[in-house]
Amino acid sequence: MISRIFIACLFLGMYSTGSLLGCKWIVKDQDDINHQFHVYNNRALGFLDMMVSITNTTKDAEIEHTVAFPNQLYHQKSKATDEDKLAFIVQILEEVAALFEEDHSSASWEENTVENFLNIVNKQAEELRSCIGSHSYTTQKVQRRTEMYFKRLSNEILKKNGYSAEAWETIRNITEDHLSQCAFLVNSLGNAH
């Protein structure tokens, strides 16, 4: 009898480490109605707001580009399993972090603000990755499309415009949209179709 209980507990423990049951970042904090993800996401958005170019404080500072926001990918993932949603969010966060590691010296951002933003985005990715079972990854096709999208952002907006302050303002605004979409996906956890 005790061995059956032990085996049941062991199975439950192994299952919950790779599922959302064991994910501290998704379960609501008892002292706060916000999820840890949302707390950190709001901090990241706050740092992005602080990074608005001092000389270009309006959206007029953005440059024209042909890189369409991947709404279809977000819509597709909104209907995926919870773990696939999280795997997609982790990839988005990692791609955003990689983008902001590029040469942003022409942007009038304080380095401390950029570092704080990157620390938060990397922390989100790290914590959410711990919520994903080893068997759960976004499909290679979606993963590749996401990689190519961020590569186009880098090539067609940043490199093509010499990493200018205007190019970075465009990237900053696009990143705000990505963080907002990630928050919507987190809100939809438990609602897979």
TrEMBL record:
One Pfam family linked to the record: Interferon
Alphabetized UniProt keyword annotations: Antiviral defense, Cytokine, Disulfide bond, Secreted, Signal
Signal peptide stretch: 1-22
Localization of this protein: Secreted
InterPro entries linked: 4_helix_cytokine-like_core, Interferon_alpha/beta/delta
GO molecular function: cytokine activity; cytokine receptor binding
Example GO BP: immune response
GO cellular component: extracellular space
Record-stated family: Belongs to the alpha/beta interferon family.
Protein name in UniProt: Interferon epsilon
